[in-house]
Amino acid sequence: MSLLSTLIGTILFAIAAPVVGCLLAGLDRIVSARMQGRVGPPLLQPYYDVRKLFEKERVSVNSVESVYVAAALLFALLAGGVFFSGGNLLLCVFVITLSSLFFIMAAYSTRSPYAEVGAARETLQVMAYEPMVLLMAVAFFQATGSFDVAAALAMPHPIVCTIGLVFLGVLFILTIKLRKSPFDLALSHHAHQEIVRGVTTEMSGPTLGLVEIMHWCENVLFMGWIGLFFVWGSPVSAVVVALAVVITYFLEIWIDNNFARVKWQFMFKSAWLVALIAGGVNIALLAFL
């Protein structure tokens, strides 16, 4: 992976990901509404909401909050650029984690008790899903012989055939990373879940707009991770990847609308248990068999 290809990939991701992520968010709202017996908003409602946020006056508790949020968005874009340019998967994991840490620091910098509670919960979520994400990168290396995402295109079959247990583990922690119920502890997208909105309580206007765009980009990246399990050296894989991503995203919406929020203790224990069983067993089998 060259620096130039990463730079080009980041620029292209920065252009395409917000558009695709916005459409995914709009589709999420429509499907959720239909599941609840409502008509739902138009497909572009997330775009209208973010545009309205950027039209508002910039008001923040301090000057560093928006800097941390901008840094979080920048690293999310860089992670997407590394991944979709065929770069190092492990580097992509580290960069997107760094993005999450900047987001947490933005909440802590406000010194609001509600935002601090949300930041603490966000930290717990990172600690819960990070082992499984790292095991995903290790398993990918075992399956392909390289950390480079482009190596999956040289495989004679999709890597899910080799690391299927890891894929199930990633599916489990994906609900946490997408911040969907039952694991939407730090930032709920449903009005009935919180009196105040957790980690983004003190964020408003353009700063909150950047947060929403960051979430759109993260969703596109995470769907890319799902698609990675179904890519191999055949044009047919494009259709398989599309089907896998659509089914997975619909499954996440269904889970979000049918399960109540759990306590952080259950989230933490279950995520680590899944990482140990799904990730650990699969990696051990590849290593010793």
From TrEMBL:
InterPro entries: ComplexI_Subunit1, NADH_UbQ_OxRdtase_su1/FPO. It is an enzyme of class 1 (oxidoreductase). Coiled coil: none annotated. Its EC number is 1.6.5.9. Pfam families: NADHdh. It is a multi-pass membrane protein. It is found in: Membrane. The keyword Methyltransferase does not apply. GO terms for molecular function: NADH dehydrogenase (quinone) (non-electrogenic) activity. Its main location: membrane. The chain crosses the membrane at residues 66-84, 89-108, 128-147, 159-178, 222-251, 271-288. Keywords: Membrane, Oxidoreductase, Transmembrane, Transmembrane helix. The keyword Membrane applies. This is NADH-quinone oxidoreductase subunit H. It comes from Adlercreutzia wanghongyangiae.
